[in-house]
Model the fold of this input.
Amino acid sequence: MSASKPAWRVVLQPAVIVGALGYFVDIYDLILFSILRIPSLRALGYEGQQLIDYGILLLNCQMAGMLVGGVVWGILGDRIGRIQLLFGSILLYSVANVANGLVGSVESYAVWRFIAGVGLAGELGGSITLVSEVLSKELRGYGTAVVATIGTMGAVVGGFVADMVDWRTAYFIGGGLGLLLLFLRMSVAESGMFSAAKHSGVKRGSFLSLFTCGKRFRKYLRCILIGVPSWYVIGILVTFSPEMAKALHIAGEVRAAYAVIAVYLGLTFGDLASGFISQWIGSRKKVVAGFILLTAASIAAYLMLRGESPMVFYTIVFCAGFSIGYWAVFVTIAAEQFGTNIRATVATSVPNFVRASVIPITLGFDFLKNNLGIIPGAAIVGVICLAIALLALMGLEETHGKDLDYHEVI
Done:
């Protein structure tokens, strides 16, 4: 850290600021479908059960795209650079979201949600990797917390925008914001660690190396599993909040847009709190464990609501958002677990495997709700997600303060 600059000025350098704005646009675009599911599908001529069935199909297409993109962008990030990863990612999802505003059928909608998912997959992991490498080990936790905190506000803004304009216009705005961000990216320099690795001759961006070593694979899998409760909350409790609210006999209309605003507003405060707490107490694992337990309490409170007002419902959703606000810490853990030559591959693919976990989560939820009911189905899936996350966390090493300037032997 420079002796001539206070810590906050070192943290708020271009890589952090632009990374935060990039994640802001990423989250705005990512969450749009959860907000626009009902109005967009109704505008295309679908009603009733089709709103859920096609909603699950389109959400899963988006998440499948993120799964593919997470691997592709991660490999490219380790092979050609973090900055090039971020340029390519934001260009693809910006174009795709403009195209989403032009769709005329559920088939074309599905194709463009998949392509948008591929593009969206690179932003968070690329930004966290870059910030982790350009900041010192004493400050990188603050940097990643800033990225996540500002980034999650994109969903709050998206919720208000989607509530004020036509669904097609909301997609156009997202695409336009992404294209504008490309110009800001030009001011950001490449990571010094990556530049050194590029000229060292070491093998870089080997996704398969994560599966050829048992210890490395178990570590990678655990990094993925600790984030699963986050997308249970967003993929089930928030995306299908209108249907869940009816089953809980909430005394009034619950709108998905307001639920998204509530959960991401909570996430904003949660990401800020978890990032700073992890720095203050010197532990990533303890913070994640605490927030997973908070998530369990929030899910229980949500599912036990009966006959309350929409305001009480949104308040519980806000609390659930706060409790899953360990997202930045979770991605930082993944980045810190591995060497420079596969760090972008890991940090970019891990959050997207977590997002893709919404596919088995929604399929399991759909099966259980048809056989047991919507609330028991949601409860069973939630318990499974929480248990898996806690067991995975137990097997990970503490990485706070770890030196990241090293290579994996692959």
